[in-house]
Amino acid sequence: MADTVLETIGLTKSYGALKAVNNFSIKLDSNKIYGLLGRNGAGKTTFLDLIASRIFADRGEIKLFGQNAVENQELLPKLCYMPEKNLFITTMRVREIIESAAGFYDSFDRKYADQLCIKFALDKKKKYKTLSRGYESILRIVIGLASRAAVTIFDEPVLGLDAAVRDLFYRELLEDYTANPRTFVISTHLIEESADIFEEALIVKEGVLVEHLAVEELKEKARYVSGKAAVVDAAVAGLKVIYSEMVGSVKICGVYEQFTDEKLKKLSGYEVDTSPIPVQKLFIYLTTASKEGIL
Fold first, then answer.
1. Beta-carbon count within 10 A of 47 CB
2. Closest CA to 63 of 54, 74, 51, 73
3. Terminal CA-to-CA distance of the chain, rounded, Å?
4. Strands, E, within the chain: which ranges?
5. Does this model's pTM top 0.85?
6. Rounded CA gap, 204 and 195, in Å?
7. In contact, 240 and 256? CB cutoff 8 Å
8. Which of 10, 103, 142, 283 could form a Cys-Cys staple with 116, CB 3.0–4.6 A?
9. pLDDT digits (tens, 9 = 90+) for 155-201
């Protein structure tokens, strides 16, 4: 059984009347890649900032390796958080920033950091203030991966990067994760291209964690149902529909449901076609479904 490396209990953070994080309770295991998914403003960054002690909760607990993680100086080097915006000193050179990170994280691999700089064409002599948005992201990627921290968190890691460099990041993360297993949490809005690297998904809506499942379990609960509109409507009646569209005379519904034998038997009684929903599309449907929808 995997060990729990990060746990939150009833985590809540409000800004005035807005509950940015509302009663967030999760358990994250060692050596897994988690996708933290939700629309802009869903509360993802607030949640990550709380975990990293960048801000503090109104109430609730955060435990890292079973210990209170809030301002715990002994535990902080075991958690590497690369937020969307870093507060690096702008006059520092890239090599100086990397060296500072190496001095903070116990497991930092300087040789690997140098290799990553070469792979991503990051000039270590440049000052941070001269970096483009894309190279700022690359610097965060280098530090996050080379930290080899037991819990490594990326918030929007590929902002400003073109498709080829984004693909290089995903491949590099998977290769190093395979060689040096640890827990990754990746918050991103580029769901379609990153979905295949996640083992479990954390889906957030309006400050609430509405789903936490293994990706394979999510896929088992999701199916397209298509056919004549009236027949499809009858087939999906009483089921949870997260997507619907008409393509000519054909109606297509995306259904998200715990498919029991009884529900499968019901579907088989109608002249409809069923097919799996690709995981990329499923994540998009789950994070954009209306308030009246499934989640």
1. 27
2. 51
3. 29
4. 4-15, 18-29, 33-37, 59-64, 67-68, 79-82, 151-155, 183-187, 200-205, 208-214, 222-228, 241-247, 250-256, 273-276
5. yes
6. 15
7. yes
8. 142
9. 999 999 999 999 999 999 999 999 999 999 999 888 878 888 999 99
Q: Are strands 79-82 and 151-155 parallel, antiparallel or unpaired?
A: parallel
Q: State which H helix or E strand residue 280 sits in.
A: helix 279-288
pLDDT for residue 2: 64
User: What stretches of 67-226 show up as alpha helix (H) in DSSP?
Assistant: 94-104, 110-119, 133-147, 163-179, 191-194, 215-220
Model confidence pLDDT, tens digit, residues 150-167: 999 999 999 999 999 999
CB 198 within 8 A of CB 217: no
Query: Residue 144: what residue type?
Result: G
pLDDT at 189: 81
**Residue 74 tokens, joined:** 């002994």
Read off the tokens for 47.
């949640």
DSSP codes of every residue in 92-114: SBHHHHHHHHHHH-TT--HHHHH
